[in-house]
């Protein structure tokens, strides 16, 4: 089933704890695809699927190249590949790339966010940037914002590493500081299966 929207989450240093505070609150009825990109060592396997799966109501998996993006799934970017969202006919699919690192990172949050912003104009999206110690994600968040997506950041004061959310605040002045405990309920209100056409971004 094609997703009704995309939730794009970028994180780095301190991001595991932040993800564990957000993702378990997403209920199984959500008809969105949640795409998570965490900076990981390129030479080690990711343990995020094993770590997050027991905590989450939605299934958690790493996507394959050219895989169709489906609703009701949390996708975790694999290490040492850029993860991109692309349009194929009436569907969205993933693309994996071994192009050069961006902001010293592969996968790069900027690459993911920019690809999503260009893939399907008009598709509801939310960009979320959590704890991290680089500026990766700021340029991508700007692209998402220009495409009409709200941008949420973890409060830099509560983040283990404040540089990443602070950089997004500087680059996207319209971004909203969202406490971690409010992110999942807010996403559920926006993207709920039975949401009304008057659903709004939470104040």
UniProtKB/TrEMBL annotation:
<feature type="domain" description="CheB-type methylesterase">
    <location>
        <begin position="1"/>
        <end position="194"/>
    </location>
</feature>
<feature type="active site">
    <location>
        <position position="136"/>
    </location>
</feature>
<protein>
    <recommendedName>
        <fullName>protein-glutamate methylesterase</fullName>
        <ecNumber>3.1.1.61</ecNumber>
    </recommendedName>
</protein>
<dbReference type="GO" id="GO:0005737">
    <property type="term" value="C:cytoplasm"/>
</dbReference>
<dbReference type="GO" id="GO:0006935">
    <property type="term" value="P:chemotaxis"/>
</dbReference>
<keyword id="KW-0145">Chemotaxis</keyword>
<feature type="active site">
    <location>
        <position position="12"/>
    </location>
</feature>
<feature type="active site">
    <location>
        <position position="39"/>
    </location>
</feature>
<dbReference type="GO" id="GO:0000156">
    <property type="term" value="F:phosphorelay response regulator activity"/>
</dbReference>
<keyword id="KW-0378">Hydrolase</keyword>
<dbReference type="Pfam" id="PF01339">
    <property type="entry name" value="CheB_methylest"/>
</dbReference>
<dbReference type="InterPro" id="IPR035909">
    <property type="entry name" value="CheB_C"/>
</dbReference>
<dbReference type="GO" id="GO:0008984">
    <property type="term" value="F:protein-glutamate methylesterase activity"/>
</dbReference>
<dbReference type="InterPro" id="IPR000673">
    <property type="entry name" value="Sig_transdc_resp-reg_Me-estase"/>
</dbReference>
């Amino acid at each position: 089933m094609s997703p009704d929207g995309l939730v794009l989450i970028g994180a780095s240093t301190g991001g595991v704890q932040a993800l564990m505070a957000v993702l378990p609150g997403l209920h199984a009825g959500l008809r969105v695809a949640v795409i998570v990109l965490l900076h990981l060592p390129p030479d080690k396997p990711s343990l995020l699927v094993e770590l997050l799966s027991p905590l989450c109501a939605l299934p958690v998996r790493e996507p394959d190249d050219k895989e169709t993006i489906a609703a009701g799934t949390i996708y975790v970017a694999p290490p040492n590949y850029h993860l991109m969202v692309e349009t194929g006919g009436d569907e969205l699919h993933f693309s994996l790339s071994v192009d050069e690192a961006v902001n010293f990172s592969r996968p790069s949050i900027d690459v993911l966010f920019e690809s999503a912003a260009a893939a399907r104009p008009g598709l509801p999206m939310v960009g979320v940037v959590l704890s991290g110690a680089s500026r990766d994600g700021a340029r991508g968040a700007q692209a998402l914002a220009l495409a009409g997506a709200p941008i949420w950041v973890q409060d830099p004061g509560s983040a283990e590493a404040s540089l990443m959310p602070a950089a997004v605040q500087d680059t996207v002045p319209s971004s909203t500081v969202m406490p971690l405990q409010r992110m999942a309920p807010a996403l559920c209100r926006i993207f709920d299966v039975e949401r009304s056409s008057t659903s709004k971004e939470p104040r």
